[in-house]
Amino acid sequence: MAGKVRRGHLLGARRTVVLALSAVVALVLLVTIGVVVRVQSSLSVVTIHDDDRAVSAPADQDPLTILVVGSDSRALEGERHGVDDGSRRSDALIVVHLARGDARVDAVQIPRDTVLELPACPDVGEGSFAGGRGMINGALNHGLACTVAAVEALSGLHLDHAVELDFDGFVAVVDAIGGLPICLPEPMQDDQAALDLPAGEQVLTGTEALALVRTRHAVGDGSDLARLDNQKRVISALVAHLSGEDLTRRPDRLARLAEAVAEATTVDDGLGSVAALVALGRRFAAVPDSQVSVTTMPWQPAPDDPNRVVPAPEAADAFARLGQDRPVRTGSPDDASPRDPSTPSTPAQPPTPSDPSSKGPTSCPPSAPCSC
């Protein structure tokens, strides 16, 4: 379903990719203050393929496709963020493609409520899974390799690398930088998430920032897709804060930040060293913002459950373009409206470059108490 590209939303979506690679940025900075060994020992490294690709592609492969996973393990202090049932779920799934010659970054966000036939997963160190129909976010409960297999089955792509960032680490990251300055255009309240934030400029603790990212009931229609605006808002605020603060002058804060990121990060064996992450980070840093495009996978309600989604026919084209190293022609990245299968699809337009004067990830009502 095509829609107008709102520049603020496009900017916020682009920054989603930047946040997904913020671990790389922090690790690059950490190298400058000589604590590489501490970071290297904190990284979790796993195998994501069990065949002749058991060792992933080198970080300098050209082009390169990476799965970025934001996970909710609920393993640490789960009672603060939800019921701790011992499970592990992906709360964000983004397929990121770095084009040949590092000329462009295209990314497709996959709704976590996407239903599919999950493939069986051999044991590559995190247990096996027999497969079966389910939501894609549940694959992570059987390991990062299972999530990679599920996304490959959904998209038809081969994923060269995978990076997982745990939400418990997100809390530590925000606290390590002294809190997150943010501007909220309206109050956010959600008793279930222990969230009660006023409108306006404020500094969030790590716990508050995580609650804002995860809340369903304080935004939109309460759906999982409606949370994307809040996620983009927090992401943009974090990137802006990290970009505007010279952490090299605060080695103590930089060390805490990088250590928090490293402890919350799981990578495949091809990215299992600081050197590989630094090389990858430099490649992404070289891509101009105008050449970064992010969209949500075209979707429609699942036939057997309107509260779940399945890929719309247009999704196959979006993923095929990634595999062919071609730009993804999509509508607005925040266009999360379902496609009516009975309505002829309207050709989507390429994303419009973001307005450099845009100040935030979302449009803001004129009555808002701050420029957001």
From TrEMBL:
Record's signal peptide: none
Biased segments, Pro residues type: 363-372
Keywords, ordered alphabetically: Membrane, Transmembrane, Transmembrane helix
Disordered as annotated region, ranges: 291-372
Transmembrane segments: 16-37
Domain Cell envelope-related transcriptional attenuator as annotated: residue spans: 89-241
Domain of life: Bacteria
Family named by the database record: Belongs to the LytR/CpsA/Psr (LCP) family.
Protein name, per record: LCP family protein
Native organism taxonomy: Bacteria, Bacillati, Actinomycetota, Actinomycetes, Propionibacteriales
